[in-house]
Every structure is written in C-alpha cells, then in structure tokens.
Write a structure and sequence with these properties.
Blueprint: H1 7-19, H2 24-34, H3 38-43, H4 46-49, H5 52-56, E1 61-70, E2 76-87, E3 93-99, H6 105-121, E4 128-133, H7 142-156, E5 165-168, H8 175-189, H9 210-228, E6 237-240, H10 245-256, E7 260-265, E8 269-272, H11 279-289, H12 293-300, E9 305-308, E10 319-321, H13 331-339, E11 344-346, H14 355-363, E12 367-369, H15 371-374, H16 377-390, H17 397-421, H18 428-446
Parallel strand pairs: 3-4, 3-5, 6-7, 6-10, 10-11, 11-12
Antiparallel strand pairs: 1-2, 2-4, 7-8, 8-9
Helix pairs in contact: 1-2, 2-6, 6-18, 7-8, 9-10, 9-16, 9-17, 11-12, 13-14, 16-17, 17-18
The protein binds NADPH dihydro-nicotinamide-adenine-dinucleotide phosphate.
Amino acid sequence: MPQPLPDSVQSVFEEVIRRNPGETEFHQAVREVLESLGPVIAKHPQYTDGEIIRRLCEPERQIIFRVPWTDDAGRVQLNRGFRVEFNSALGPFKGGLRFHPSVYLGIVKFLGFEQIFKNSLTGLPIGGGKGGSDFDPKGRSDAEIMRFSQSFMTELYRHIGEYTDVPAGDIGVGTREIGYMFGQYKRITNRYESGVLTGKGLTWGGSRVRTEATGYGAVFFVDEMLRATGDSFEGKRVVVSGSGNVAIYAIEKIHQLGGTVVACSDSNGYIVDEQGIDLDLLKEIKNGHRGRVADYAAARGAHVAYVEGGSIWDVPCDVALPCATQNELPEDAARALVRNGCTIVAEGANMPTTPTAIRVLREAGVRFAPGKAANAGGVATSALEMQQNASRDSWSFEHTEERLQTIMRQIHDRCLTTADEYGAPGDYVAGANIAGFTRVADAMLALGLI
Ligand code: NDP
C-alpha cells in the first residue's frame, strides 16, 4: 500500500497521472517527492499559492524525434530520440542521455524529474533535464555506434548549447558516444563549444574524475553516513549491483577506504568473490572487450560463484549499493537484506529501490540514502567540467576529487539539517526531497510566472 499523500498535493498527483497516462516510472518518481512535501507546504503557503508544485511536474519542453541510421549490412534502422527539458530555474538544463531498448518517454521523464532535485541539492547552478533513445548498443560495432550517435546529434544539436541544455552520459553512453556526438555537434555548428556536453575525453575538454565521479561520490556519501555514527568502511562487507561505470568506480573507492566488495552483477547474473572483487580483472573484462561478469568467474577460478539470474541482494552484506538500474531492488530483496543484517542502503543508480522496498528498509531501521543525494557526484563533477571549460582551464585529479568529496559532504549535511528542520531527524529521503525542492521553488518564485 502506498503512503497517503498530503491533501494539498493529492490533486496535483491525480493530474500528473491523467496528463501522462501509462508513464508509470514518472508517476513513481513524482509520488516519491510529493510524499515528502507535506511539512514544507504547511510551513510555506507561498509554494501552494504559486502552484509551484503543479508547474514543477510539467516539463518546460519535451522533444521527440526520429533517428534513422544504417547498420553494417547497409540496412536502414530506425530509433526514437528524446530530450525532456524539465526545469531551468537554476541554470541550463542538465542531465544525461541513455541508450537502452527500455527507453520511452516515461523513463526519460522520471529521470528528468529526479534530476531537477538532485541538481538543486548540489548547490550548483544547473537545471534538470534528461534524454536518450531506445537504441540498443549491445552487439553493435563501433562504426554502427558512430553512425547512430551522429544521426542522434543531427537532430539534437538544435536544442542544446552551453547556456541552454548540456547533456552528458548515462546507461549505454560513455566517453566514446559523447565523442561521436561532440564531433558531430562541432561539424554542424562550426563551433568548438566545449561546454555543450560533459563526460568528454581528457584531451578534448573533459574533466579529471568525471568518469569516476558517480561511483566515488556515492561512496563518499556513505562514508559520511558511517562517520555520522562514528563508524567507517574499514572491514565492511559490501554488495554493489551492476558492473558499469557507476558500479566499477564505487567498488574502487570502497576498496581504497578499507571495505570489501564481495559481489557485483550484470543483467544476466551475479558473481560472488569472497576474496573481494579483483577490480583490474573486472575493468579489463568490461572496458577492454565489453564482456560479462560470467567471464570474470571463468577467469578468476573456482572460488568465485556465478549465479545466473537470481537476486544479488541474497548475498549477506553490511552495506548495499544498487548501481544498475531502476526498480532492481524490490520488496523481497529488501527483506533479504534486512534478514542478513544489512545496515545501510545507498542508491548509486536512479530509483533502483521500489517504494515498498524502501518502506521495508526504513521500518527495519536500515539507513537509506536516495539516489538524488547519493549519486549526485556525477552531475556535480559535470558542473565542474563546465566550470573548467568556461575558464579554459584543466584541474588536477587531486583538486577535482577534493571538490567532489566536499560537495558530497555538503549534500549529506544538507539532507540531515533539512530533515531535522522539518521534523524528520535522520530521514535522508525527506531531507533530500525538501532541500532540493525549496531551492528550485524559491528560484521559480523569484523569476515570475515561468
Ligand atoms: P552502465 O551502462 O555503465 O552500466 C549499467 C550496468 O547495470 C551494467 O553492468 C548493466 O548490465 C547493469 N544492469 C542493467 N540492468 C540490470 C539488471 N536488471 N540487473 C542487474 N544489472 C543490470 O550505466 P551507468 O553505470 O552509467 O548507470 C547505472 C545507473 O546509475 C543508472 O540508473 C544511471 O541512471 C545511474 N546514474 C549514472 C550516472 C553516471 O554518471 N553514469 C550519474 C547518476 C546516476 P548489462 O551490461 O547486462 O546491461
């Protein structure tokens, strides 16, 4: 059973469902924020008077376009491209592009909506947006990826710009894809506009630490949660789902801080390595030849278990970091984590934990950090990339990582302070939603009827 919504936002939610039929992930993301806003509305009637919440749920602009391209056999292929420019009260629209067959408008809108509050929470001048395509990069050659990325940008270029909308990577979009898109943007516009995309390569305008930022940032956030109770990563047993960009760098930082990651996964299955995941091997398999976690088990030896299908959350751990995809941690997985003594769950991915799973965790006293706080390090470092591009500068790894760590500490503290202020001590969900909301809502009020 979902939690009841505050009366003042019930009609807003009903309107969201009516106006966006079938977009279940978007409904879920909106509901999750609205559930937190009761105390804010009670304290600040100006937000209801100005219909801020209703306006926040409606994107400023939604773009859907055709992406034709040819495969290696010369056959014409067709995909659909999206960019949802959700809110620019705090700065240019900012958020990644996802290439995955599951992408449709409801996924892009859920991600774009989350992005508004996440970006606000960083304290940096960035609005919220998201985009992508239902293109499936799996099994495609490098030349096919390039032709698709170029075709995608041939339409997208007219909607973006360093002061307008600044996309980045997400699932299925890494430095390679950003490179092909940046090259096409440069060709079409005849501008070397570094600040139009983030996640660029280091030799052509990228920032150090951007690749590592989401995973490292999530771990810095958990480190702050542990410190808040006088604890640390030292000796902790950790499970990280996924084995993509976020998961790999989360594993790296956990190992640097003294924890041991014993399991990770892909969409086919998961591996358990009681000696701790050998990250060099995993990186070689994933980044070197885009392999599977099953290849890791085969390469590392008999002590590694590979479980095809199944739930990675059955593996006992102290800390769990879902870093794969939305709704990957359902209610029964939450119950397994509780049963096995897990004390912290922090979302490296966007909305990986279902609402009922979150309730199970919280009722059991498991401390839970939502993605819009815990995985904000990626977009924060993208904003640092924009700063470096604007000043034609390039910072050292150490300096950039220090900035990231400071930002994650500030986000953590902002969540706790806000949760305290609104009568929900220790509640990271309420803290993140309310702190993210109030900053963007105040900007919207100040800018007139936008
Ligand atoms: P990648 O494409 O690099 O990796 C995704 C990983 O998740 C892959 O290993 C994929 O396996 C795995 N996966 C997908 N579906 C499942 C599933 N159902 N069960 C288990 N594993 C699965 O994406 P990212 O690491 O960049 O993104 C992961 C999450 O983090 C997403 O929710 C994204 O929105 C979020 N995020 C990413 C940011 C970034 O900077 N990259 C920033 C903030 C949030 P397979 O290869 O089999 O598909």
